[in-house]
Amino acid sequence: MLTKIKKLICENKNIALVGHIMPDGDTIGSCLALGYALESQGKNVELFCQDEIPDNLCFLKGCDKFHNEIISCNYCFDLVIALDCSDPERLGIFYKLLETSNQTINIDHHISNTKFALVNWVDPTAAATCELVYELIKNLNIPINMGIANAIYTGISTDTGNFSYSNTTSKTHIIAAELLETGVQPEEMSMNIYKNNSIERVKLISKAIDTIELHEDGCISTMEITRDMLIEVGVHEKESSGMVNYAKDIKGVELALLFKEQEDGQIKVSMRSKKIVDCNELASLFGGGGHARAAGCTINTTLYNAKKIVLEEAKSFLKG
Ligand code: AMP
Ligand code: MN
Ligand code: MN
């Protein structure tokens, strides 16, 4: 697989890197790291991500280089690489880039990946797509500079809950150790990513915690974030990442469900489990996907109804 990817990269000059909608640290980190690596080899690289980058990731150098509109790009790309995208819909408007290029690569770690590209490197044992990007950069013999190192560390840290989730492996720590040797400062990174909340985000956390309810004898928790709540505290929806963990980290809770009202009225559901519920399977019942312990889907109905239908399905997953 790596040989095929290396060949495509070596043979092509104009390369587009695409991250997923509602971006997180892993997709942004993967695009930035691979972007820096390929640019250092004389490639023309352009980065694409439909939605705005959350504030806590904007400290990463190069974040301002992402295009969020198709018209801002006049290139004809020889090669398009999707990073951390489980299916073409996750590319949003930049799905068009895939359609217009006949050389496409999909690098991802979601078990629900639909293998939509010409070459698909999908490894669900990787804690983050950034782990795969790191392996690729090393394999290409490209030196790891600070831009690459900080971006990779960010993706690995955010997808593993700062090295605490069950997807964290010895390999995760080996990569992190190598990044620290390159010069990554873990305290500075944690400060930037997790300990630099705006007061508005803290107020939203408070409101979201207030909506927590327990179901099924305390095995399932639900949390809600409505448009009204966002307006009241004056915060953008992209600043609501990670809040589902407050519902998950309750004694006795196996499955946490966050229902978030989108601008278009649809409901985005974030699912997190501790040991039993396969969130990827549960999310796939509603057209979504992800991993066993963390998945998501978007449902076109009211918040009240989304909660009702997801809870109904979730009950049967508790038995494992
Ligand atoms: P989130 O709850 O948005 O933080 O997402 C948790 C995990 O599920 C991440 O790995 C996402 O990439 C994945 N995911 C979220 N929403 C979807 C969706 N609609 N389709 C496929 N995967 C998703
Ligand atoms: Mn992601
Ligand atoms: Mn990821």
Write the layout of secondary structure elements.
Blueprint: H1 2-11, E1 14-18, H2 25-39, E2 44-48, E3 66-67, E4 79-83, H3 95-100, E5 104-108, E6 119-122, H4 129-139, H5 146-159, H6 170-182, H7 186-194, H8 199-210, E7 213-215, E8 220-225, H9 227-233, H10 244-248, E9 255-261, E10 267-273, H11 279-284, E11 289-290, E12 294-299, H12 303-315
Parallel strand pairs: 1-2, 1-4, 2-3, 4-5, 5-6, 8-9
Antiparallel strand pairs: 7-8, 9-10, 10-12, 11-12
Helix pairs in contact: 2-4, 2-5, 4-5, 5-6
The structure holds adenosine monophosphate and manganese (II) ion (2 copies).
One manganese (II) ion is lined by residues 26, 84, 109, 128-129, 159.
Describe the structure in your own words.
The chain has 2 domains: 2-194, inorganic pyrophosphatase (n-terminal core), CATH 3.90.1640; 199-319, Diaminopimelate Epimerase, Chain A, domain 1, CATH 3.10.310. The chain has a 6-stranded parallel β-sheet. Strands 7-8-9-10-12-11 form a 6-stranded mixed β-sheet, with helices on both faces. The chain is 38% helix and 18% strand. With 320 residues, it is α/β, with parallel strands linked by helices. Bound molecules: adenosine monophosphate and manganese (II) ion (MN) (2 copies). Adenosine monophosphate (AMP) is lined by residues 86, 110, 112, 270, 288-291, 294-298.
